[in-house]
Amino acid sequence: MEYDYTRILQQKHKVYTYKGFPIPFAKDGVTMQQLIVIGSVFLLLFLLGIFVYMQGVASLVALIKKGWMIMIVLTGVVIWTLFSLNWDRKSFFSYLLDRFRFKKNTYKQYEHGQLVEIPLDCIVKYDIGRR
């Protein structure tokens, strides 16, 4: 029987080498989450550059032509900062997801595990009976 240590120990999938060569500055490996986020950010920057060239906005075209290296470095620094930040002993993305869930469920009321739907403009009156 084979154990799935990734699921049992809740370890993240990591990449340690690329074609047999170790990844520099990442001795502990690079997680798949980091690869996906970094790839999607650079893809977004690339698509933004194509859009700017197609639209022909002169100031943005000049910014991309002259400052492409600065844009790549700043993007890398921002991504590295976001992955290294911790709030409430959790990663930045888990923190943002939890905050989104909290704000989404702020005005919902539960009683005994059941959702109680009370309109916000409703005034609740209690009848006080005689003893």
UniProtKB/TrEMBL annotation:
It comes from the Bacteria. Keywords: Membrane, Transmembrane, Transmembrane helix. InterPro entries: TcpE. The chain crosses the membrane at residues 35-56, 68-87. This is Conjugal transfer protein.
